[in-house]
Model the fold of this input.
Amino acid sequence: MTRVGLAGYGFAGRDIHRPALLEAGCDVVAVSTRNPERADAAREDLPGVEVVADLGALLEVPGLDLLVLATPSGGHAEQVRSVVDAGLPCVVDKPLAVDAVTAADVVRHAADAGVPLTVFQNRRYDAEQATVARVVTDGLVGTAFRYEMRWERWRPVPKDRWRENLSPAEGGGILLDLHTHLVDAAVQLFGSVATVFATVTARTTPAEDDAFLVCRHSSGVVSHLGATSLSGAPGPRVRLLGTEAAYVLADFSGEFHPWSGQADTDAAQAGWLYRGDVREPVERASSTQADLYRSVVTALASEDPQGAMPVDPWDAVHTLAVIDAARISAAGERVVVVDTPQR
Done:
C-alpha cells in the first residue's frame, strides 16, 4: 500500500484528495495543518494518522512513498521544490505555480533531481470529461469546430477565502482556480492553444471573479471557456458544435442549472446529441477522479515513474501560459499569441 503524506487539510485536502486517495487504495499516514479544528478532523477521518504542523515536519515523517500538496496555490512552486529536494515523489494540486515561467523552472528542477512530479488535474477523470472525449474520438458530431465549456455559479455574496481575496500573484482569482480546469480540458480534447482573447474582471472580490477566454487551438478548433461567480442562470456545462451534430451537457457534479429540458434522464446518461429538433442520449463513460491516483500508484511501481505519470507537468506549464496570455489580452484588449516555455 502506498504511504501518503498529505499537506493541507482544508476543503481540497479533506473533501477532494482524501476520498480519491482512499478509493485508490492509498494509505494516508500523515497530514500537515496548523489549524486545530482541521487537525481534529484529520484524526477523526483517518484513525491513526500522524498530524504535524507544517510541510517541513511532514517531510521528516519516515517511510512516505508520496507527498501530496493540497495547499493554497501561491505556495505551490516553492513547496514542490522542497518536496523534490527531500527526494519524495510529488502530486501538487493545480495550478503548479502562478505563472508559466515559474512552473517551468519547477518542472526542470524535478527533472534534474530525477524526482517524479505530476499535477492534480482531477477533472480530466470526471465521467463527463471522459464522455466528451469519446464523443470527439468517435466523431459523433462530425468534425468539431467550436467547444464551449462553462463553470458558472451564482455567488452574489462572495466567500471570504484566500481564493477570493488574494491577488493573482499570490494565487488568488478565478483564472488560477477554475480556468486551470477549463483550459486543461480543452487542450486534452483539441491540442495546444495558439492564441487567446480574454476578458477578465473583478466584480465582487479583490481577485478576479469573472473571466471569458476565446482560445484558438493549433488544430483549428476554437474553445470558448467561461467561469464566473455571478451567473444567476448557469449555462450548460458543455456545448460542442460539429459539422454533423452538436453535443450538449447540462448536468455536472450536482450543481444547479435551469436547463431542465437538457438534463440527463438517469445516471447512465451524460448529455445529448442534437441534430436540429432530433436528439438522442449519450451513454456516460466510466471514469472517476480516483483513477488519477491509481495511475500514480502504477507509475511509482514502473521502470519510468515520471514517464508513466498520469499528468505530464509540462501540460500544466502550457495551461499557465494560456492563462498568462489571457491576462495580457484582457489588459490590452487584443488577441495574444501563447508563449509556452520550452522543456
